[in-house]
Design a protein that fits this description.
This protein is α/β, with parallel strands linked by helices. It has three helices and five strands; from the N terminus they run βαβαβββα.
Amino acid sequence: MYKLIALDMDGTLLNSQGQISPRTHAAIATARAKGVTVVLASGRPLEGMSRYLMELGLTGQDDYVICYNGALVQQVADQRIIRSQLLTGSDASAIAALA
């Protein structure tokens, strides 16, 4: 039994038209009905994912989202940050120097 399913958005959750298909909606609803936690994960910022979280009803206290390629994990309902690992300006400079 799965306890959690994390879904990438582009090319996985979303079809080529940027939409969630009826089949995918049904599969997610079935998983959630069985008690599986469904988490959206993307390189997008939260603002770019909010529409899909609402469309899927993933907006409760037990719903989470992974943004910025994993740099931010947040509870959806109250936007409480679970984990944040963002780059500073000096980190970016060091990476650019290595490149």
